[in-house]
Amino acid sequence: MKFVRFQQGAAVRYGVLEGENIRVVEGDIFAKWAMGNQTVKPEAVKLLAPCAPSKGVCIGLNYYGHANEMKSAIPKQPLMFLKPSSALNHPGGAIEYPAISQNLHYEAELVVVIGKQARNVPAAAARDYILGYTCGNDVTARDIQMNDGQWTRGKSFDTFMPLGPCIATDVDPADIDLKLTLNGESKQASNTRDLIFKVEDLVAFVSQVMTLYPGDIIMTGTPAGVGPMQIGDTVAVELAGIGRLENIIVKG
Ligand code: MG
User: Fold this and answer.
1) Cα of 9 to ligand 1 centre, how many Å?
2) Ligand 1 centroid vs 42 CA: distance in angstroms?
3) Predicted confidence (pLDDT) at residue 68 exceeds the cutoff of 90
4) What is the DSSP code (8-state) at residue 25?
5) 225 Cα–ligand 1 center, Å
6) pLDDT of amino acid 70
7) pLDDT digit string (tens) for 151-203?
């Protein structure tokens, strides 16, 4: 199943993709819901990020290839940081190039969407707490990230957390092809088989520290090939079995 969240007039609703249409869901997919009778055309509504997380938990340096290109040691445990909820961005949304950065980077990532409240969840039970998976772009002001040492400022600008287009519930997170194109040109191409720490381990690791609420996300890290984006660029993250998340870069 593929869940979407969309705006229709003033209302924000969930739906399920059915071929070319969206079947509107009654209720909240993170609580109680049922299939509705109404369908809408995707072009008739504004597609939103498929969830509105209270926090974006991110994992750094979680692909062997990316750790190598950053000249970083392979982490012995997951390297965790946060993006604030205010960084949320949507399919087709504009990523704002901050005036105080000269090196804005894309990072294609598999994103875990938490389905029910999770605290101290063992890896063996992690799948029970995951609703599904979506595409994310861990947009990064690389110069600010490197200058600060702490990653918060470089990772947290408004618009730096695009998610979407849907939450796919039936994909195997251990074997997903992911790619990123910039203005149609291939920049990143990998598979989640190359993740250093797997999705189940990440849910266990993060939930040891903080409560994960329904709709919270874990961005699982990016493969090799990170690089700069310019104002006017179109960036697209594509994950097999999930979909395509496209955004444009504008002056901040
Ligand atoms: Mg990242």
Assistant:
1) 34
2) 29
3) no
4) E
5) 12
6) 86
7) 999 999 999 999 999 999 999 999 999 999 999 999 999 999 999 999 999 99
Of the candidates 51, 140, 36, the residue with the CA atom closest to the CA atom of residue 91: 51
Residue 143, both tokens: 């110069």
Mean pLDDT of 55-63: 96
Q: Which residues surround ligand 1, an ion (CB under 5 A)?
A: 107, 138, 222
Mean pLDDT of 79-107: 98
Please give the distance, rounded to the nearest whole angstrom, from the Cα atom of residue 185 to the centre of ligand 1.
20
Question: Could you tell me the two tokens for 124?
Answer: 């063996």
Radius of gyration of the chain (CA): 17
Span from the CA of 91 to the centroid of ligand 1 (angstroms): 18
**Reduced to 3 states, what is the DSSP secondary structure of residue 156?**
coil
Does the predicted model carry a pTM greater than 0.85? yes
From the CA of 140, how far away is ligand 1's center (Å)? 8
Element (H, E) at 46: strand 46-48
